Amino acid sequence: MGRDEEPVDPMEIDGQQKLQVDAPTAVPEGFNADYLRVYYGKLFPYGDFFKWLCYGNDGKHPGCDQSYVGRREFSFTLENDIYLRFQSFDSAAELESSIKEKCPFKIDIGPVYSVDPAKRHAYAQSGNNVFVPVERELVFDIDISDYDDVRYCCSGADVCLNCWPLMTIAIKILDTSLRDDFGFNHILWVYSGRRGVHCWVCDSRARKLSNEQRAAVADYFRVYKGGENALKKVSLPGPVLHPFLARSYTDVLENFFEDKLLRSQQLFASEERCQKILDLIPDENVASELHDKWQGNRRSSISKEDVNEARWKQLKTTLQSGKHKAQGLRRCVEEIVFSYTYPRLDMEVSKHMNHLLKAPFCIHPKTGRVCVPIDPNNCEDFDPTAVPTLSQLLGELNAAGFQTDSENSWERTSLEKSIRFFRTSFLQPLLKACKEELESAYNAKLQQSKNSVNW
């Protein structure tokens, strides 16, 4: 890429020297343009990032669509909320120099359009509306703040190791279903940097889905139909659960609810919390019977059993006993578990092709944390509080000594594991599949033109 020939930005050098003088290794916590400039100058994985979004169209193969990546929208949010939409780049070098020059606080990725988004006005003047999104990864966005009514440890953008497992559950359920029920293979999970996770489904079949098809996929996952005032946000009608829901319940949700969530969120620890669960029981007599039971044994501390587990057991026994096997109550236990644990998707993000989503390896300006990929096979080991921060990475760079060769500076920092995972577990298999698809599409075209000539 000819990095060595690039003119060196004097600000970058000043920033480096200043950081080293102030502190040889430790860098003050925080997020600012100077820190970001060093990050973009030394650590951001431009090559891998660009390769991903080319989907094999950056080679010399005659079947490549050379215009493909140049029709992709990038959006930059600069300092002071200056918003630049419809940026486009034809090469990794162009993308890299623009990011280094503009130092965006946030980078969002949009769809691939029918024409270069930066030239959209020229096409608009020609009178025919040819500027439309034609391709886009199928994306999902899940925020922990959407679970505020069922977590008692944190609220809003705050997250801790007691409530983060709700995100782990979402990853497990969606990842399994996207692979098993829809047959997708190339799925990238990314930590949003603060309070949630993003999912990018990158198979070519997923990228070509229409808005209607995207809405249908999103709807397949929609169980939690929250509404501010609706007490009951999950209904599981019908004599049997859909196989996907039954599998999610038995493989993931039930155990998580009973083994972890009951205690970690103290779901039955107060009158108010108990009432919230009782409100989900459609039969008032059953609810008040349980309420009286819990009122009665509130002060008795004879039982060594945890109050949350004891009350949950009583509730299950009552609802599943012979006299309450009526249709309305049969599903009630499952509905309660689903209400508290099932993934809550931001449906609009998934339904529309032109939705922007934050790029992996961005830095979140509020936390200073990197938006790193998450391995869905080991997602229970992911700790959002241990994700590298901008100042930590700069401290690691300082400790390693700023070297003139910045090609692989990331290898000397704690970002190494994330970039390596992105490259080997996600990017390489994806590019292999892209290459095979390109080959077979090209060969089919050749065969077609041969046939028409022979005819």
From TrEMBL:
InterPro entries: DNA_primase_S (IPR002755), DNA_primase_ssu_euk/arc (IPR014052). GO terms for molecular function: DNA-directed RNA polymerase activity; metal ion binding. Gene3D superfamilies: DNA primase, PRIM domain. It is an enzyme of class 2 (transferase). One of its GO terms (cellular component) is alpha DNA polymerase:primase complex. Keywords: DNA replication, DNA-directed RNA polymerase, Metal-binding, Nucleotidyltransferase, Primosome, Transcription, Transferase, Zinc. CDD domains: AE_Prim_S. Its EC number is 2.7.7.-. Its cofactor is Mn(2+); Mg(2+). One of its GO terms (biological process) is DNA replication, synthesis of primer. NCBIfam families: primase_sml. Belongs to the eukaryotic-type primase small subunit family. This is DNA primase. It comes from Urochloa decumbens. The lineage of its organism: Eukaryota, Viridiplantae, Streptophyta, Embryophyta, Tracheophyta.
